[in-house]
Specification:
The protein is an alpha/beta fold. It is built from 49 helices and 28 strands.
């Protein structure tokens, strides 16, 4: 029995070593059935290793994997020790630690002010919590802020204590067991005894004094962390240590050992290491006395480099040595300083502490520490030490770097010529993350296309690493679509470690019923929730049902708020107007089932547009309301206190959440499995923690937490699946550092931008390990990121692609890459040979003064050393820029962007091409054309609509968002709707008492007391309209539909008065704008033409339109004249079907709105044209600057969205002038002549 180490720079060699150790001859025929135990650093390595074993053996079975050494450590305790409950109790999950810290400190923040004395150890951290809420007034908000801050502190401290138990909790000097451990690094033992750490001893020993601020900060942190550890976790940790002692007592007992060994594997294989706390290696060394432990260690170098140092650190250290000498000898000369330094270097044995290879010692600090710790086993006394390094001759730049690191070859300046065809390392410079992905897609297509029988390339040979995977996940899904597309090459892509979208959306559906009521509960939020697939499955809906439900709610008046009770939370105490809520609209819909009319019943206004098919949907809405109502207090239960019957403890919340999850799953939602497992795991942890706590009152018994905290925990775990990133059989995208150390043929690193990688902002607050000096085996986020970068460099088998944003996307300014990438670039430039440089190296040349010997060239603004310019690929801002396809260096796939680039390049063809709108469109001629007068009038008043309709083109626009707020005042449209309602009620002979009931417009009137004034204004305006109407007729002229055969091939359905009369009077609640005046004019022409009366009879007829602001009178025409004028309109109609007729009525009659008129002059040809055309043109070209309205909605402006669509690349002014010259006089001069505005007092 022993502990063996096999190390190699090749992972496949380590796999072979694993297979050789697992396949051993045995006389026992059942040995093949024994479970093989492996310790792996991550789930990614476990998945990859399982696949490799299956490939080699044909099957991967009967293997048990343990995550990290600590995972196997607790497995061994559980197997060997008889007291299983004791083991389960002692293994405290970090979430339970967090809740216990929260419960311990909660009582200290319940007072209005910090009640702790300044000398109390907790004073500083509690004061920080009070300071976070100091800007709030005393009351519920301040208390909630303090609770939130406390929960955040508990989260951070739980992380700290977890780290401390791994790295600062063990005796490293072998102190006698009957004495207290005095190791400075055994913090937890000292804290357990109530002893403070000797902090000054824990700082770096330098010639500089420790600042008072740093020392005071460390003392404050140490004080409250010591108190919290001693009072909350010390007893549990003692229990954990006793378990370890019990385990070794059993293993060392000759009588108990045989039985214990039967419960443990005969061999344990550790496959690669990402972290190695010395205490865990010590556990393996002791275990190696009783069974075979094989450590398969990935080591990038075959040389001894445990004492090699970071070159930057070495320079700083040398500088401090010289500064100390100068401080003691201020008169020393340069020669004296150099002599002292040489002697110091010789005596200090500093040669072995040189960097040797800067990339390895700069980025491989963790690997160096692991090698240093493992090197204690190299003597062979405890087992075999096998070096299984593979000699490989470098064939390109990538293998050159890997070979130099393997042999620790010191870099030689400008000694390596880079071949022009060497593409093993590529540096791609882009403008944005989206552009990087677009470039990557083209490059991957080209790389995979080079696959051959001898050297196959498959999607699973590609690993793409990103420092901010969560941020660019939507961009990845956009550039690499999930389903194949006919227009492009399909690349199978898998984003590892990211929760599937369906699971995320399903959890949103579950949360919606709980969380939406805590917000405004707007129609927009509700529509988003109702559109989720999981929501639709739960309530048995489809897309059509959902759209209809939203339409019903909007039309019934839902804007925000669940009901009156919900709105009361955010409204003033004096506000009792709770209309426009979900319940308000739902009540209207429910009443509409029984009374499908606009009518009041018990103060509820029925909704009249409910159809039979809507009954089931409304029933579902009632059920949805009840579900929201049932959960309305869940998120605020901790605020209500005794006012609610809800139990606010964690156990009760978890049960309620599980019920909701099961409810959705029973409805057919299958993607909630991950969430259910998270909730189930939390239930188990809480149950075990409470069950095994032997105190009379468990600190976790009935732990009260706001539901929001628990939901955040679940959400964090759901989004924290990055730690579970697994290799896939496709192109794998992963967070940097999650899939390592694994080899791939092609490794890509994206977003290597300065400030993004390595991420120096991510750290745990209050961490003493960061303030005090580190120890061998410690982990840091910075070292992790640098180590992951080094692994990518060393484990890329064929190609390494490095992407960064070299330009600012907004201003095009050049941006520097990540410091890690820049160091790699400097190193490559240092060892690479330019054509004009000699191959001989100079000993005093280093990357910093590289520019002294190498020329710098500019690649589109990116300055690079001449000898490495072939590594760079600078890409254009847009994927369709023609220059991007013309470059010989860039590999581009001819996709849709290539077609766009071709169109851009065809400038000559574009210049010669006739505009498509100038080509008459051949309209289809039917034997008989049937027109609707109303539609025809709309087309003629706005000819853009006519042309697009003839082409069969719809100019799509963004859907108007429903109003999210209740109306506070009425705008012009809302006032019109009130007048229109009153007018229609009058026309239908509704009695005055009903018409004057303000409640009939409760779905339109503004909220609050303003509704009464708005209602009174509406009544006054209606009375005014009725009074003006009395001047012309006692009532509005009743109309009917008639079919008129204008000619043999043209029939029109027109609207006419029911009875023959001299005056056709209409009442319109809208204003008399130019377009409506044109509509009335055309109705007048159609009426006269249809009647076909003689001149004397027809000239006396009047078409009178009473608008809200003016009364328009059309009179004086004979039927013959009307036919003549109508013929001109039909000519314009025929023209507008084949070519754009730029003649909107809103523009030509705009002067009439101000009681002005157009003037006309006759040309020599006899044609009359507009004299003051500039007035029309100024309106047509009006700028939208400082206007209170949007010109894209104004039909008289060339900026109208339809005119912009039709007239693109055209001379809009020339087309307007042409239309006015050809048609304006015949169409609009008669309107100015025969249409007048009545003078009313």
């Amino acid at each position: 029995m022993a502990i063996h180490v096999i190390q190699s720079q090749r992972i496949d060699v380590l796999v072979q070593g694993l297979l050789q150790n697992t396949i051993r001859p045995s006389k026992n025929p059942f040995a093949v059935l024994q479970t093989q135990h492996f310790i792996v650093p991550s789930p990614a390595v476990q998945e990859w290793l399982s696949q490799r074993i299956a490939e080699q053996q044909g099957i991967s079975a009967n293997s048990q994997f343990h995550q990290r050494i600590r995972g196997f450590q607790w497995f061994a305790y559980q197997q060997v020790l008889d007291d299983k409950d004791k083991v389960r109790k002692a293994n405290i999950p970090r979430l339970i630690m967090k809740w216990r810290i929260y419960q311990t400190l909660k009582s200290f923040i319940e007072h209005d002010e910090n009640s702790l004395a300044e000398d109390h150890p907790l004073h500083s951290i509690i004061q920080r919590i009070y300071d976070a809420a100091s800007q709030l007034q005393q009351g519920l908000d301040k208390q909630l802020k303090k609770q939130s801050m406390l929960y955040w502190v508990s989260e951070q401290v739980s992380k700290l204590f977890s780290h401390y138990m791994l790295y600062r909790a063990d005796c490293v000097r072998g102190c006698p067991q009957n004495q207290a451990c005095q190791c400075p690094s055994n913090w937890l033992a000292q804290w357990g005894r109530g002893e403070a750490l000797n902090l000054e001893q824990q700082f770096f020993k330098t010639n500089q004094q420790i600042s008072a601020f740093t020392l005071n900060q460390a003392q404050e942190l140490e004080n409250w962390q010591r108190w919290l550890w001693q009072h909350t976790f010390h007893d549990d940790f003692i229990e954990m240590q006793s378990i370890d002692a019990d385990f070794w007592h059993v293993m060392e007992d000759v009588q108990q050992r045989p039985q214990a060994l039967k419960k443990l594997p005969s061999q344990l294989i550790v496959f690669t290491l990402l972290d190695l706390p010395p205490s865990q290696l010590q556990f393996l060394r002791r275990l190696g006395q009783y069974l075979d432990v094989v450590i398969l260690h990935y080591n990038p170098s075959q040389e001894y480099w445990a004492d090699s140092v970071d070159p930057n650190w070495k320079k700083q250290y040398d500088l401090r040595v010289k500064e100390r000498f100068i401080g003691k000898n201020p008169n020393a000369t340069d020669a004296d300083i150099q002599k002292f330094f040489d002697e110091f270097t010789l005596n200090f044995n500093a040669e072995i502490r040189e960097s040797r290879h800067p990339l390895l010692t700069r980025f491989g600090k963790q690997a160096r520490d692991h090698f240093s710790i493992l090197s204690n086993l190299s003597s062979g006394e405890e087992g075999q030490w096998v070096d299984a390094f593979v000699d490989e001759e470098p064939i390109n730049l990538l293998t050159k770097l890997q070979s130099d690191i393997l042999y620790l070859v010191e870099p030689e300046a400008h000694a390596y010529p880079i071949a022009k065809e060497d593409d093993s390392i590529q540096i791609h410079v882009c403008h944005s993350a989206l552009r990087q992905l677009e470039v990557l897609r083209d490059q991957l297509i080209a790389w995979l296309a080079k696959s051959s029988l001898d050297q196959p390339r498959r999607p699973n040979d590609i690993l793409v690493l990103v420092p901010d995977l969560k941020q660019i996940e939507p961009l990845i899904r956009s550039v690499f679509p999930h389903t194949p597309n006919q227009d492009s090459v399909y690349l199978p892509v898998k984003i590892a470690g990211v929760t599937a979208l369906d699971a995320h959306n399903a959890w949103r559906a579950v949360l919606g019923r709980i969380q939406l009521i805590e917000s405004r509960f707007s129609i927009e939020d509700f529509a988003d929730w109702l559109s989720l697939t999981a929501t639709q499955l739960r309530y048995d809906l489809d897309i059509a049902n959902t759209e209809r439900m939203i339409e019903l709610l909007i039309n019934a008046g839902f804007k925000r708020g669940l009901d009156a009770q919900h709105l009361k939370r955010s409204l003033s105490q004096d506000d009792d107007d709770f209309r426009f809520s979900f319940k308000f609209a739902l009540d209207r819909l429910v009443l509409g089932i029984a009374i499908p009319e606009h009518r009041l019943f018990e103060n509820v206004l029925s909704y009249a547009q409910v159809f039979t098919a809507d009954f089931e949907l409304i029933t579902t809405l009632v059920q949805i309301y009840q579900d929201f109502d049932h959960r309305r207090d869940w998120m605020i239960a901790h605020e209500l206190g005794k006012q609610t019957t809800l139990k606010c403890n964690v156990e009760a919340w978890l049960k309620l959440l599980m019920q909701d999850i099961v409810e959705f799953e029973q409805a057919g939602v299958e993607s909630l499995k991950t969430v259910r497992e998270i909730v189930k795991k939390q239930e188990r942890m809480l149950t075990l923690a409470s069950f095994y706590d032997e105190q009379e009152q468990s600190i976790l018994q009935d732990i009260d937490l706001p539901l929001a905290y628990l939901l955040n925990e679940i959400q964090n775990l759901l989004e924290g699946q990055i730690d579970q990133a697994l290799p896939t059989g496709q192109i794998t995208f992963s967070q940097i550092g999650q899939i390592r150390p694994l080899p791939y043929k092609l490794i890509v690193l994206l977003n290597l931008d300065g400030g993004k990688f390595p991420d120096r902002d991510v750290h745990v607050p209050f961490d003493l390990m960061q303030i005090l000096k580190p120890q061998l085996g410690d982990r840091s986020r910075l070292d992790d990121d640098q180590g992951a970068f080094l692994d990518a460099l060393l484990l890329a088998q064929e190609n390494l692609w490095l992407f960064y944003n070299g330009f600012d996307v907004s201003d095009g300014e050049v941006r520097d890459p990540s410091s890690v990438l820049q160091e790699l670039i400097n190193h490559i430039a240092f060892i690479s040979q330019a054509d004009h440089l000699q191959s001989t190296s100079t000993s005093n040349t280093c990357p910093e003064n590289l520019t002294a010997v190498a020329q710098i060239v500019s690649l589109d603004g990116i300055e690079v050393p001449e000898q490495i310019q072939t590594l760079y690929h600078v890409h254009t801002l847009q994927p369709f820029e023609p220059s991007g396809f013309e470059s010989q260096q860039s590999i581009r796939y001819q996709d849709q962007w290539f077609q766009v680039a071709q169109q851009i390049r065809q400038t000559e063809a574009l210049a010669q091409r006739d505009a498509w709108v100038n080509t008459p469109y051949p309209s289809a001629q039917d034997d008989i054309m049937v027109l609707d007068a109303g539609q025809w009038i709309q087309d003629m008043t706005f000819p853009a609509r006519l042309y697009l309709k003839t082409l069969g083109v719809e100019n799509l626009s963004a859907d108007d968002m429903p109003a999210l707020n209740e109306p506070l005042i009425l705008d012009g449209l809302a006032r019109y709707q009130i007048r229109d309602f009153l007018q229609k009620a009058t026309l239908h002979s509704v009695d005055d008492a009903t018409v004057n009931d303000m409640r009939l417009l409760q779905n339109q009137l503004p909220i609050g007391k303003v509704q009464l004034s708005a209602w009174q204004i509406g009544l006054a305006e209606q009375d005014s309209l009725k009074a003006r109407l009395k001047h012309y007729a006692p009532e509005v002229t009743l109309t009917t539909q008639r079919q008129w055969r204008i000619e043999s091939g043209l029939v029109m359905n027109i609207t006419l008065p029911q009875q023959q009369r001299a005056d056709w009077v209409s009442l319109d609640a809208s204003s008399g704008r130019a377009k409506r005046r044109t509509k009335v004019w055309l109705e007048y022409l159609l009426w006269l033409s249809y009647l076909n009366l003689d001149a004397e009879q027809s000239k006396g007829l009047q078409r009178i339109a009473v608008f809200s602001d003016v009364t328009i009178i059309n009179t004086g025409l004979s039927s013959a004249q009307a036919k003549q004028y109508l013929l001109a309109w039909f000519k314009a109609f025929a023209y507008g079907q084949s070519e754009p007729l730029v003649l909107p009525a809103a523009l030509l009659l705009k002067l009439s709105e101000n009681n002005k008129t157009l003037t006309w002059i006759a040309e020599d040809s006899g044609r009359s044209v507009i004299e003051d055309f500039t007035v029309i043109l100024n309106e047509w070209n009006k700028s939208d600057a400082f206007l209170p309205y949007d010109l894209t909605e104004m039909e008289w402006s060339k900026k109208h969205r339809d005119w912009q669509f039709i007239l693109q690349e055209q001379d809009a002014t020339a087309l307007l002038k042409h239309a006015c010259d050809q048609f304006a006089y015949d169409l609009y001069q008669p309107i100015y002549q025969y249409q007048t505005v009545a003078e009313e007092s």
